[in-house]
Amino acid sequence: MSAAPEDRIHTLGIWHGSIEITPLFGGLTNRNYLVRDNCRRCVVRLGTDIPVHHISRANELAASKAAHEAGISPAVIHHAPGVLVLDYIDGAPLVPADIRHASMFERVVALVRECHFEIPKHFRGPAMIFWVFHVIRDYGAALRCGNRHAESIPSLIEKAERLERAAGPFEIGFGHNDLLASNFLDDGKKLWLIDWDYAGFNTPLFDLGGLASNNEFSAEQEAAMLETYFERSIDDDLWHRYVAMKCASLLRESMWSMVSETHSSIDFDYPTYTDENLARFDRAYEIFCGY
User: Fold this and answer.
1) In whole numbers, what is the pLDDT of the chain averaged over residues?
2) Residue 100: C-alpha distances to residues 103, 216, 265 (Å)
3) For residues 92 and 185, what is the distance between their CA atoms, to the nearest angstrom?
4) Are 202 and 83 in contact (CB under 8 A)?
5) What angle do helix axes 219-230 and 102-118 make, rounded to 10 degrees?
6) pLDDT score at 28
7) What residues in the chain have per-residue pLDDT under 50?
8) How many CB atoms lie within 10 A of CB 188?
9) N or C: which end of the chain has fewer CB within 10 A?
10) Is 218 helix (H, G, I), strand (E, B) or coil?
């Protein structure tokens, strides 16, 4: 029988004196804890590789180290198989309304751009590619039978292939690939980006599409995001490629949740999350088809 999470944390051998362990809620691919000893506070992330979701903890570690070197993410204090210990950032996670606010909007877009082009300067060792269309096809293969979504999979894969054709040509940066509002922390002076489970080289348009869809940007905010990021006016070609990648981001999130319905042991209402994201995808895909 595997050790309880708290027991495992106690045995890491990195603490100064007694420790206080507090669960942190919100993680869907790992279990997170705030740990305080006599000298400091740390965040302990417990999680193994999740092949069905293309999660490699070795890649997460390398990305976390590179993101810290780039000044974007907290320092790695300790790591072991299935364990990642990070410096604690005394900051508040953002919510979508924060990101949509004018005072935060440009800071967030600037941080995403910094992620894309600064982290590769510091990344060491083998690096993953997060290619959303491969992920979607792989999810499709896992969902072709034995679940409530099986009949819809061929149609979704066909739509993904259309999106892939429309989204190129592709520039490449280093993507975070999971730009939920809660992965941004504001400590009052600095904005941080955390949680590198899905990190890997990717087209910047995937992160931008995810940022917009996860945080419910208006069309005007999407245009402002693209103009801020690319530092130029947006033409029809770029807008069309962006809309295709935004759709791909929504489809990947939907299929991630479909797979999680049967593969995840974390207590979360995946079926409802799946249905909500599929509805959002359908609306976005209808707009894409109108161009």
Assistant:
1) 95
2) 9, 8, 33
3) 5
4) no
5) 40
6) 79
7) 1
8) 8
9) N
10) coil
Measured between alpha carbons, how far is residue 281 from residues 30, 50, 62 in Å? Answer: 26, 25, 32
Q: How many Å apart are CA 66 and CA 45, to the nearest integer?
A: 17
* Spatial separation of the C-alpha atoms in residues 27 and 197, rounded to whole Å: 11
What pLDDT score does 203 carry? 97
Query: What is the identity of the amino acid at 26?
Result: G
Write down the pLDDT at residue 93: 96
How confident is the model at residue 266, as a pLDDT?
83
| Residue 116, phi-psi category: left (phi > 0), alpha (psi -120 to 50), beta (remainder) | alpha
Distance CA 237, CA 154 (A): 28
H helices present in 143-218, as ranges = 153-167, 204-214
Buried residues in 138-154 as b, exposed as e (16+ CB within 10 A): bbbebbeeeeebeeebe
pLDDT at 128: 96
Give the C-alpha separation, 50 to 68, whole Å: 24
Angle at Cα 145 formed by Cα 144 and Cα 150, nearest 5°? 60
Q: Check residue 2 and give its pLDDT.
A: 60
Determine the 3-state secondary structure of 282 from DSSP: helix
Q: Which of 224, 211, 157, 221 is nearest to 182 (CA)?
A: 211
Cα–Cα distance for residue pair 249/3, rounded to 1 Å? 36
Measured at the alpha carbon of residue 284, what is the angle toward residues 283 and 289, in degrees to the nearest 5?
A: 100
158-181: pLDDT as tens digits: 999 999 999 999 999 999 999 999
